[in-house]
Design brief:
Layout: H1 17-45, H2 49-77, H3 79-98, H4 103-131, H5 134-166, H6 170-186, H7 203-220, H8 226-250, H9 266-272, H10 274-298, H11 302-308, H12 310-313, H13 319-326, H14 332-349, H15 363-377, H16 380-386, H17 393-430, H18 438-447, H19 459-494
Length: 504
């Protein structure tokens, strides 16, 4: 069984890196920009916080639910074709969002944009896997991780600047412009590749998995209480269980071939998935909620909050590339485990944060979190496709990207719910007499502080709420440190063997 396009040995394959790495910069921009713009969108188009949250959630759920199908589809019809299709969707939806008249249309377009993101990221990974082998593949994927890190590092700052100067619609026009430039000058350099034995897509499995991804979010969503919340959780549990059952049985959304089932060997592929899931909790969730803490508790504006989280995001510019170089000599599993331990240490040191603390004492802990998370981020893309034959790279990339995006979405929802729960718990201990009415405060938190929106409270109540919210952040940091340490142990025990090493 061979791929229609073998890994090239000519120098032109390095030209493929430019458009793919630029597209990797766009992915975090499409996620972080709309998240920061949520308050401005609310002021312009209206809508409660639950509706506004779907600006991010619609994209994340569509992205996470479609990446596995996008990988299998790329194997079937061509990875370049899927890559171009994703960029076209980015361009069209971003322009339409720039002129959208209401919140419902915006949320629907964001879901379509999420499908485009699934096509772009999964195809980019598969295309690199086809062009490079051995140490060159490791370096290429390290550059891909660095590009993704650049989007994470500067995305919040760039988006905040554009929103403050040109309005909330401007980041979408910027995304459309970058997509057009890649289509015009980058994609002609990319060669087509596909799996000649691919037979089609399991659409029922895709739909079921997408429903399961959405159910996982609904299960963790804060503010869902009462009988409605119980019914929603029961429904979510049924959908999530069905999706997990389908994923266990199939291992992919690609149909069987004449040579037998295409499901990859369970152990190598699924051992690697600990890396994106753990990174979702130890890093992605933090860079979502740390700006909210800076905005809500320390009264910083969006641009200042973006600058404040440079310490954890800036290492993503260089650490993934350095990790790729170290992987030539050391096991990627061992390196990833060390990275998670560094991240755990940073989370524990960050316990010194308080409402009156300057950002400077927080720089070192946040740097450690960014450095530690950057190590597995620079290795996990290459690991995900190194455990399968090249002609199955699209499928493996789909499974990996699914776990990355679904893990990040669940981590964000779970950490958000934990912050609200811990905050209300701390308020119940701190409040005395009738200073605070807990049901009202819980509603304020669910619709205000926890989402980054501005909340008008009395001075004494605000101080108590912000102190409790910071205490909740401390509890979450401890949990994240424990999870990172456990992820390190899993890496040391299961990814240190030769089956998990990158090709040399």
């Amino acid at each position: 069984m061979t791929d229609t396009t073998a890994a090239s040995g000519h120098d032109d394959r390095y030209k493929v890196l430019t458009p793919i790495c630029i597209s990797a910069v766009i992915i975090p921009l499409v996620f972080t920009g709309p998240a920061i713009s949520t308050p401005a969108v609310g002021r312009d188009l209206g809508g409660d916080q639950a509706s506004l949250s779907w600006i991010v959630n619609a994209y994340a759920i569509a992205f996470g639910g479609c990446v596995m199908a996008a990988g299998a589809l790329g194997d079937h019809i061509g990875r370049k074709r899927c890559f171009v299709s994703g960029l076209v969707l980015f361009t069209i939806t971003s322009v339409l969002i720039g002129f959208t008249p209401n919140l419902l249309a915006l949320n629907l377009l964001r879901a379509v944009e999420g499908i485009g993101g699934a096509f772009v990221l999964t195809s980019a990974t598969s295309l690199l896997a086809q062009e490079f082998e051995g140490d060159e593949r490791t370096r290429a994927f390290s550059l891909l991780g660095t590009a993704f890190g650049a989007g994470l590092a500067f995305g919040p700052i760039a988006s905040g600047f554009l929103i403050e100067t040109l309005g909330w619609r401007s980041p979408y026009f910027a995304i459309a412009l970058i997509s057009i430039l890649i289509l015009a000058f980058g994609t002609p350099r990319i060669r087509e590749s596909r799996n000649p034995d691919a037979k089609g897509i399991d659409w029922s499995g895709t739909i079921l998995f997408t429903a399961g991804t959405g159910a996982a979010y609904l299960w963790d969503r804060p503010g869902t209480t009462g009988r409605v919340g119980q019914r929603s959780r029961r429904c979510a549990l049924h959908r999530l269980g069905a999706a997990a059952h389908r994923l266990r049985d199939c291992g992919t959304t690609e149909r069987p071939t004449d040579a037998g089932p295409v499901a990859v060997p369970l152990s190598p592929v699924y051992r690697v998935q600990i890396l994106p899931v753990a990174t979702g909790f130890s890093f992605i969730a933090l860079i979502v909620y740390l700006p909210i803490w800076f905005i809500a508790v320390q009264a910083r504006d969006e641009f200042a909050a973006g600058l404040a989280i440079l310490p954890p995001t800036a290492p993503m510019l260089v650490v993934p590339l350095l990790a790729g170089r170290l992987a030539r000599r050391l096991s990627p599993g061992i390196l990833s485990g060390v990275g998670f331990l560094i991240s755990a240490a940073g989370a524990l040191l960050l316990l010194g944060m308080s409402p009156g603390t300057s950002v400077w004492p927080m720089v070192l802990p946040m740097l450690l979190i960014g450095i530690g998370s950057g190590i597995p981020c620079g290795l996990m893309d290459a690991l995900s496709v190194s455990v399968v034959p090249k002609e199955r790279a699209g499928m493996a990339a789909g499974i990996f990207t699914t776990m990355r995006v679904a893990g990040e979405a669940i981590a964000i929802a779970a950490i958000g719910a934990a912050l609200i729960g811990f905050t209300v718990g701390r308020l119940s201990v701190r409040s005395t007499e009738q200073t605070i009415t807990l049901p009202e405060t819980a509603a304020v938190l669910a619709n205000g502080i926890g989402s980054g929106a501005t909340v008008n409270l009395g001075a004494s109540v605000s101080a108590l709420v912000y102190e409790s919210y910071t205490d909740a952040f401390h509890a979450v940091l401890i949990v994240l440190a424990v999870l990172a340490a456990l992820a390190a142990m899993v890496c040391f025990l299961t990814l240190r063997t030769s089956t998990a090493k990158l090709p040399t």
